[in-house]
Amino acid sequence: MQRKNYKLEKVFTPSKPAEITYVERYEINRRIDRAIKTSGKQIIIYGYSGVGKTSLIFKKLKQFKRKFIKTSCISGMTIQDIVLDAFNQLDIYYPSQIDESESKTKGSSLASNFWFIKAGLKFEKKDEGKQINKRAVDLPITPQNLAKFIGEKKLVWVIEDFHKIEETHKKQMAQIMKVFMDASTEYPNLKIIALGAVNSAREVVQYDSEMKSRISEIEVPLMHHDNLKSIIESGEQLLNVSFTENVKNRIITYSSGLPAVTHQLCLLLCELNNIEKTQRNLHKIQFDKFNEAMEEYLEENSDSFRAIFEQATKVTHQRKNENPIDLLKHIIDLNKENFTISEIRDVIQRTNRNYKPNNLKKYIDEFLAPIRSEILRFNENHNTYYFSNPFIKAYIQCSLKAEINKNKILTKEFKNILREELLIAQKAFQQDYGEFDFGNFEDI
Ligand SMILES: Nc1ncnc2c1ncn2[C@@H]1O[C@H](COP(=O)(O)OP(=O)(O)OP(=O)(O)O)[C@@H](O)[C@H]1O
Ligand SMILES: [Mg+2]
């Protein structure tokens, strides 16, 4: 049988939702399926950035043959902007010069509702003909009307990056969800799916407790090593290439549960081996290119590492002992892979005996959230914190030492620190998954 031909960028998609290398998320599939199928159920999907929220939801909507419109939130957007964006995508026109009796018989009940609120609107001339069409967006917009229009068109409304919206608007979003719940009696498939890169659904949408039973909160967890491996292996199949076990394990380790990193490292590694599409004969990817791929990765991401660091250490209000940069210094001073609040407290108290840790947990928890670039993660089983990935940890250490030359990130120092961090990551990986042949980590 002839092998299908795929372009490299279709296989490894670091900045696009996964398609052909998509691996199933068995741990949450059932819950998400039920939430999509249950009429009136609104959905909040949350989890770290790059963990696979968008990929998952697009895959599911496709599987259930649900059409959707998508609104991507950006900082500063108001709830009105979001509603307007949805209306714009619906592309609704209605004929405004047909007389009313005609519209009542011909048009849907919905169009005739709008008929009565058209007063005072500007008209837009469409083509040479008599009919003037009016975009519904210029009409007074209410969540009720939006729900009806989306419902009539049998659509789902996906709202991405909802965490970027201001707190006050999150409550309003809950009200809109309520309207959608109520409208589901008339339109069974109608629903909002809100996606947010945060630690809890409550940070995505703030809703009342009585709405709880009608909202499904689903966390997309960090991706398990087996699944990350499946991404690499399905890429190998599709491109007819093979990576050594050693390389695969390294990629998995450095990904720290984020498929985005897996895709990017695989893409770079293939590029460096001149793989642009499916190979006719099995192509063994050379190990020696791995270090180059890492360098490229660091180079390519140095701006984002810097942005992450700046965001994580931004000072909005000066604090006496607990400015973000000071807290990070203390954490690095601890020199531990996993650490607790009381350990951080102790290290602060070493230099400042009178220090009171009343707000310490609150400030440390900020590092888990997008406002501080999610640089830390929390392990609920052990009540400990850890850096979200070895690259970020190394970059932070380096920045704190102020030894990074801002124009050239790949200083010897950064690479040295990174090597140590990767060794630590490798050890943690081995603890969890047993011995693997990692080859020589020293060579990075
Ligand atoms: N199930 C999966 N199988 C294979 N690759 C995946 C899967 N889920 C996500 N990916 C890949 O991981 C990367 C991030 O995915 P995605 O954009 O869906 O994450 P996200 O959680 O929506 O991120 P963000 O918070 O930044 O929007 C992409 O490169 C995507 O191709
Ligand atoms: Mg996304």
Would you write up a description of this structure?
The structure is a single chain. The chain has 444 residues and is of the alpha/beta class. The protein is built from 17 helices and 11 strands. Strand 10 and strand 11 form a beta hairpin. The chain folds into 3 domains: 26-219, P-loop containing nucleotide triphosphate hydrolases (Rossmann fold, 3-Layer(aba) Sandwich); 224-302, Helicase, Ruva Protein, domain 3 (Orthogonal Bundle), CATH 1.10.8; 306-443, no CATH class. The chain has a 5-stranded parallel sheet with strand order 2-5-6-1-7, sandwiched between helices. Strands 3-4 form a two-stranded antiparallel ribbon. It binds adenosine-5'-triphosphate and magnesium ion. Adenosine-5'-triphosphate is lined by residues 13-14, 16-18, 21-23, 25, 47, 49-55, 197, 231, 259-260, 263.
Low-confidence stretches: 97-126, 440-444
Largest sheet: 5 strands, parallel
CATH class of the largest domain: Alpha Beta
Tally of discrete structural domains: 3
Bound molecules: adenosine-5'-triphosphate, magnesium ion
Distance between the termini: 40 Å
Estimated share of beta-strand residues: 5-15%
